[in-house]
Amino acid sequence: MGASPQEPRTRVTARARDLRFDAGTLSLNLVATVGRRPAGPVERMGDAERLAAWCRGVGLTPAPGYEAEALLRSLHALRDAAYDIASSLLDGHRPSPASVDLVNELAAPEPPAPRLELRPDGVRQAPGSDLLTEDALLSVVARDLTGLVSDASRRERLTRCASEVCRMLYLNPPSGRPRQWCSMRRCGNNAKAAAHRRRRAATGEGRSPESDAT
Question: What is the pTM of this model?
Answer without folding.
Answer: 0.83
